[in-house]
Amino acid sequence: MKNFALIGAAGYIAPRHMKALKDTGNVLLAAYDKFDSVGVMDSYYPEADFFTEFERFDRHVEKLKRTDKTIDFVSICSPNYLHDSHIRFGLRVGADVICEKPLVLNPWNIEALKEVECEHGKKVFNILQLRLHPSIVALKKRIEEGSKDKIYDIDLAYITSRGHWYYASWKGDESKSGGIATNIGVHFFDMLTWVFGAVKKNVVHIHTHDRAAGYFELEQARVRWFLSINVDTLPESVKARGGRTYRSLTMEGTEIEFSDGFTELHTHSYQHILNGQGFGLDEAMPSIQIVNDIRHMKASGLVGDYHPMAAG
Ligand code: NAD
Ligand code: HP7
User: Fold this and answer.
1) Which atom number of ligand 2 is nearest to the Cα of residue 13?
2) How far is the C-alpha of 249 from the C-alpha of 255, rounded, in Å?
3) Domain stop point among 126, 158, 191
4) What residues make up the domain containing 35?
5) How far is the centre of ligand 1, averaged over its atoms, from the C-alpha of 216 (Å)?
6) Which among 113, 124, 164, 203 is least surrounded, fewest beta carbons within 10 Å?
7) Residues 79, 136: one domain?
8) Binding site membership of 168 for ligand 1 (Cβ less than 6 Å)
9) 69 and 164 share a domain?
């Protein structure tokens, strides 16, 4: 049984971490968030201490260090641009760290974190949950067992509608979330490069506040991708039944079903980390490099090989 502290306890994703902690038989001793709407803690860890000021949280965690309740892991569910700072806190107090995606916004932040990991002899793990999705694991196995010379044609469309709130929150601020390709796309860029190999060519067709589209050449795939958080971009059939999400991944024109089974992946991620197999700083690097490149690339507009849904 490991002792945990959690940063960002009042947010959307924090309950999934609390559930994962509970499911894996661990204990949450302390939590911190600037915002105090954390009643959800009662469903998981009513006994955990909670702080709305970083300094008091820090003091408490330091105090625990001198007892038999040392914090073994700090879990981080704060906004993306704060991750590296919160990771350093975790390492400094002598804990291993489990951090949400994207691990950081820029590749050089990872280099800096490697040094802090070494200084403290502790490890940083990133939630890269799609690598644990059964359909994606099966796909990777299939590609590994096939010919290394085969280049697959992949189309990925991922629409997950968000209301106006998104643009008013830190998620809509590129300096805080990295923008849609970073905040949402990072899952898919990680998953695609994990399965099909490193990026050889990266083209961005569209990159706006509510959608992004592009084309990759990977070692074993040509990928046309489209991401959107705008409800208007959903296929008519999805809109007609009142749906708000559309996830489609095709390989050589055949659908690979991966829409279900997302919600349990945090528990699975915790099991994986606690079994000593978690994804560390080096594993986060390829997708962080990609999202950083996309953020700094000029969108070409709809020229070349673009995803059909990008044309609207
Ligand atoms: P959110 O805005 O709902 O929650 C963030 C929380 O952090 C808020 O409660 C906020 O008050 C708190 N916070 C802000 N500044 C803070 C600070 N300085 N110190 C402590 N707390 C602070 O966002 P969310 O959707 O829960 O996202 C949190 C993280 O999880 C992000 O990195 C996001 O990218 C990631 N996420 C991952 C998934 C996934 O599928 N793996 C899903 C959603 C979010
Ligand atoms: N929802 C909220 O109420 N609040 C939120 O902050 C987010 C969603 P899904 P997830 O938007 O920041 C995805 O699309 O899969 C509502 C990304 N993860 O299933 O959980 C939403 O309106 C994640 O990396 O959301 O999260 C729906 O009603 C990204 O940070 C419902 O929750 C996050 O969006 C479910 O929404 C985000 C993946 O794509 C795997």
Assistant:
1) 20
2) 6
3) 126
4) 3-126
5) 29
6) 164
7) no
8) no
9) no
* Protein residue with least CA distance to atom 21, ligand 2: 162
Average pLDDT, stretch 135-144? Answer: 97
pLDDT for residue 260: 80
Query: Are residues 227 and 250 part of one domain?
Result: yes
* pLDDT confidence tier of residue 202, bands split at 50, 70 and 90: very high
Write down the pLDDT at residue 262.
80
Q: Say what the pLDDT of residue 28 is.
A: 98
Whether residues 120 and 241 share a domain: the answer is no
| Block residue for tokens 């980390």 | 273
CA of 63 to the centre of ligand 2 (A): 35
Question: Of 85, 105, 126, which closes a domain?
Answer: 126
Ligand 1 contact, 265 CB (< 6 A): no
| Shared domain check, 216 and 113 | no
Confidence at residue 273, expressed as pLDDT on a 0 to 100 scale: 98
Confidence of residue 222 (pLDDT cuts 50, 70, 90): very high
Ligand 1 pocket mutation pick from 34, 177, 186 by most atoms within 8 angstroms of CB? 34
What gap in Å lies between CA 162 and CA 210, rounded to an integer? 9
Instruction: Indicate which residue's Cα is closest to atom 4 of ligand 2.
Output: 12
pLDDT digits (tens, 9 = 90+) for 253-286: 999 988 888 888 999 999 999 999 999 999 999 9
